[in-house]
Amino acid sequence: MYAILDIETTGGQFNEEGITEIAIYKFDGHEIVDQFISLVNPEKPIQPFVVNLTGINNAMLRSAPKFFEVAKRIIEMTEGCILVAHNSSFDYRILRTEFSRLGYDFEKETLCTVELSKKLIPDQLSYSLGKLVRALGIPVTDRHRASGDAMATVKLFKMLLSKDVEKDILKSLIKTEVKSGLTPKLLDIVEQLPTKTGVYYIHNENGDLIYIGKSKNIKKRVNQHFSGTSTKCIKIQLEVFAVTCEETGSELIGLLKESEEIKINKPKYNRAQRKSIFQWALYTEKDANGYLNLKLLKADGRKKEITAFASLQEGKNALFRITSEYQLCQKYTGLYASQKECFQYKIKECDGACIGKISSEIYNERVEIFIDKNQFENDNMVIIDRGRSLQERTAILIENGIYKGYCFYDLNYQINNIEILKNIIIPMQNNRDTRNIIHGYLRRNKVMKIVKF
User: Which of 163, 172, 281, 327 could be cross-linked to 308 through a Cys-Cys bond (beta carbons 3.0 to 4.6 Å apart)?
Assistant: First the structure.
């Protein structure tokens, strides 16, 4: 749990500043669950330049509560939370100073979104809050007021959590939980998980990842691990200390993240998925008469494949759909071998290439259309799908045929401006599995839109 905050002060000499406004949003990693926003009477005058910057003046604060009157609420809001702020050392110092004046030792774990942004979104022209959120297409209102700046920090932190491929932020949270010495029961872990689409991470007591998975219903899937009787399930049950998750909204992004992060983190109970999960592939080969044959064979990295499948049966099922959709002959897809007039031709599902009714040139054109549709070697496009909420969308960027990554966005101008899109994209690896995951998903499912540029 995170307490994301922003503080406005009177200005003045170091450690003599007073708080004029504070905003805290309690954030569970997915949404805001509580908030506290208040002006504060600092019992000292505000510096003129601060009045010009924030619009908060001395008259506005005369009837505002003093710090000791809001201190209890601040403690309640931050209890059990990691403090998050843009330049957290400043906000944390101000809070500690105010509490020390009351004789209270205020100590918390902190995360700084300036430092996180420099690590996760490098090469920005500026890391000031205003310029950074503008470059990332994050809307901000009430700039230089605590509520507006804290809300902008919430949106920025949400994006940073998504970009945290190495899970440094989540690992720091797990380590904090370990220090508390509380070992949650399996049921308690499951109860805290969402019933939404996303990727889940199972950690041991040291915070190490031991299993990564993807599901349309995270809670249901983790519960299956905890109630399963297989050797792997029992081992996970014995070692699990905590489960974290990341909602993706889109199942396609969930599949891509699961595949990449298993290969990066190599959890010990994901051994089968560390290598390619696509063991069968579709290839083309011209026969003696010039017809392009589609062949379903064991995947061979030395050959150029059209697309690939996790199992032989999945490949055969796809071939049956392909022959119907593109009116291809079963003879040339390995599904029918007889030289006699085929049943497929009799029921008018193909135009007779298999018995010489049309030329290889005409037939091969349809095969090429199928190949082009299943490969995006030189394409520049964005695949748009549903997001984690009704207002949000996800975007997957493919540039010059190479998968670049994904992002979440709320506003159309973020997706229509390619430079903003590139700034908010969460980079991911482009590998053979990535391409086949996208191919397979688009083959089986409808996405909201595909935009080419």
Answer: 281
